[in-house]
Amino acid sequence: MADRVLEIGHFAAGFCGRLFARTGHEVVRLEYEDPAPGWASRTAGELFLHAGKRRIALRDRDLVGDLAARAQVVIVEASTADALAAWGFDDWPTPVKVALTPFGRTGPRRNWQATPHVILAMGGYTQLIGDPGRAPLSLPGHYLEFQAGHYAFIAASAARLAERPTAIDIGFYETLMSLSQFTTVQWHCMGEIRTRHGNEFWSVCPTNLYRLADGWVYVNVVPAFWDALTLFLDRPELTIDERFLTNDLRMQHRTALNEIVAGTLLPLTRSEVAARADAARVPAGVVQTFAEVLDDPHLADRDFWQHVCGPDGRVVRAPRLPWRIDHAPPEPVVLHPVEHTDD
Amino acid sequence: MTDGPLRGVRILDLTHVWAGPLAVRVLADLGAEVVKVEAPYGRGPRDPRESPIAGWLGGERGSDPWNRNAVFVKLMRNRRSLCLDLKTPDGRATFLELVGQADVVIENFSARAMPSLGLDYKTLRRANPRIVYVTLPGFGTHGPYRDRVAFGPTVEPLSGLTSVLGYGPDEPRCTAMALMDPIAALSAASAVLTALRRRAASGRGAYVELSLHEAGVAFSGPWLVDHQLGAHVGPVGNRHPGMAPHGVYPCAGDDAWVAVGCATDAHWRALCGVLDAGFDPAADRAARFAAHDTIDAAIAGWTRIHDKHTAATLLQAAGVPAGPVNTTPDMIADPQVRQRGFFVPLEDRTPVPGNPIHQPGSGSADWTPCPSLGADNQGVLAEWLGYPQARIRALEERGVLFDSPPG
Question: Looking at the domain B246-330, which fold is it?
Answer without folding.
Answer: formyl-coa transferase, domain 3 (3.30.1540)
